[in-house]
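Reading group handout, session on sequence-to-structure problems. Before we discuss, look at one worked example. The prompt was deliberately terse, the way you'd type it at a terminal:

> structure 4-phosphopantetheinyl transferase

The input record follows.
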Amino acid sequence: MTAYLDLLLIQAPAGSNGACLSRLGRESLSRLAARRKFNCSIDGWSPRGSGPPRHPGLPAPWQTCLSHSQDMVIAGLANIPVGVDLEGTQARHLTRLPGLVDQLPHPQVRWAIHGSANPLLAFYRTWTLYEALYKHASLAGHSPKNLFATRLYSTDAISRHHAWTWQTPLWTVTIVAQQRTMVIRSLPHLELSQSLAADRLAMP
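And the output record:
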């Protein structure tokens, strides 16, 4: 089976609260569903705070992924389990960066971030990978005890997961799936800047 992921990355109005971002995410999911000829009305999605949005009009095996940060939202429909995380760049994190990096459990990761040309963006690539892996595990019913119980450097993680990362100076998105290849269709177009796994990616 070919793995598909349809994505929509949108900018919310400045100062949007969590409820507004959640609503905007569900509106985006309805738009993506309509492109697939699925009838998923905006008000039919499961409520905020109850896990990934579900809809009676969304046929199996299709499922959703949703993330938001600051005033940005990313919504996705996939025919396989997908973990996605979006983080907006925040200037305040630059002054707190040493402490944030020291929270990460893998020494290899901490060294790589501190030694990178842009430690803040390297931190966001790592953080979104942790988050996306954690969300993917949760979808599969194998939630780690906490975010940092997720293992980046292990035979299991390397053999079973594949990750893709997009990054600009303003935001970072990471996607995790168990398929090595996945057709990703995005609106608007996302430019692939770095892949955390040597995987092929088809983007119309």
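Points for discussion. First: Residues 4-202 form one domain. Second: The chain has six helices and eight strands.
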